[in-house]
Amino acid sequence: MAKHTVTLIPGDGIGPELTTAMRRVVEAAGVDIEWEIAEAGADVMDKYGTPLPQHVLDSIRKNKVAIKGPITTPVGTGFRSVNVAIRKELDLYACLRPAFSIAGSGARYDDIDIVLVRENTEDLYAGIEFPEGSDGARRLIEFAAAEGVGTIRPDSGISLKPISITGTRRIVKYAFDYAIANGRKKVTAVHKANILKHSDGLFLKVAREVAEEYAGSGVAFEDYIVDATCMQLVLHPEWWDVLVLPNLYGDILSDLSAGLIGGLGIAPGANIGAECAVFEPVHGSAPKYAGKDMANPTAEILSAMLMLKHLGETDAAGRILAAVRAVIGEGERVTYDIKRSRFGTTDGAVGTQAYADALIERL
Ligand code: NAP
What we know:
Elements: E1 4-9, H1 15-28, E2 33-37, H2 45-48, H3 54-63, E3 65-68, H4 82-89, E4 94-100, E5 113-119, E6 129-130, H5 135-147, E7 158-159, H6 165-181, E8 186-191, H7 200-213, E9 220-225, H8 226-235, E10 242-245, H9 247-261, E11 270-272, E12 277-279, H10 298-310, H11 314-330, H12 336-343, H13 352-362
Helix pairs in contact: 1-10, 1-13, 6-7, 8-9, 10-11, 11-13
């Protein structure tokens, strides 16, 4: 019997080719994993009538650990995001997105080591929306007027932004526990509490209360307004350590951080709950590159590196990271995105699988 059983969701777009490369590298690192393949996304709609069949969730619940490729979300129509649904269904409340410099990535900075902890279950991502012209929107508009809290134009669509004490407490506690376990020095709560007094304001109040409980832990606490954080991340990326953010700011600043380290192709992520963990890159399905053997699998492979740490396979995780650093550092057998940002041309770029071959040779 394999030492670990992991649910593998290949996803769509560039997902299948990236997860193939990831799997080859993990297996070459000598980790004994049985992959339980579970298909989700637009491609399974016809077969199962839903983009997220029950057996996918059952598989993750059983195995407790999953790794996935990206899954396309149609904009403004069609099904809701499968990625968001998986996080909500399994209550994967903490989204961990480390952004660390890899020499040779062509990034503007070379000294970045930031960890974003994004709340994953509420905020504007709660999916509570009322379309323009709907009965729900009309009643909400009437309610706001009757309560005297504000005038909403009658032709508005409305999305709710719930932020709870419960959701905030556990994500800020997670950030502090992560900081302590990983020798980090500071947690910064990011918010817009000056404007959004009852959602972000509550987030900040609870974050401060939790920080009090961790006084003496050796981890400092501060808070920062989200727009100022964006500017200071670009001006002084070396200032930051662990950031804890409500869902939407976490999403946006993850991509900003990915940009600081050289792009989405190398930014890994993890969604962690009390029971299960699902690992996935920050990036999406990049449909224009699907099936072209072009996309960079590093983010997917580094997500597997995080998964291996989670499984206690620290040696293999370390060897995979070292191989990534070596191959990107040399800059020879790298994908188009790294060539482009480092050399200003995609000449000499290798494909997804050839890059994985280069990693495997370095393990
Ligand atoms: P995206 O798929 O992340 O791609 C945006 C751009 O980022 C690409 O055009 C490419 O830039 C670069 N990129 C992304 N992944 C890369 C990789 N592995 N290697 C090299 N470059 C990479 O964002 P999107 O086009 O906005 O989203 C596409 C779909 O994915 C949407 O349906 C979205 O909802 C979904 N999505 C899914 C997830 C998820 O599954 N968790 C997350 C985010 C988005 P260049 O063209 O400049 O090279």
